[in-house]
Amino acid sequence: MGMKDDMQQKAQQARQKAEQARQQAQQRGQQAQDKARQQQQERHQQGRQQSLDDIQDDLGE
Length: 61
What we know:
Mean pLDDT: 91
Number of strands: 0
Radius of gyration: 26 Å
Helix content: over 70%
Distance between the termini: 90 Å
Number of helices: 1
């Protein structure tokens, strides 16, 4: 009986570990997506600023 309980406990721990790992991977993926989106927005804003500068240069000349 003791052996069987031990096996069940080990299996349950393995399942919990797998679930934890899956959640962590999901969180990391989410963070990576957020970071990429943020960088994209920053690049977009910089690009817009660049074209505004170009227009002002053109107007100044």
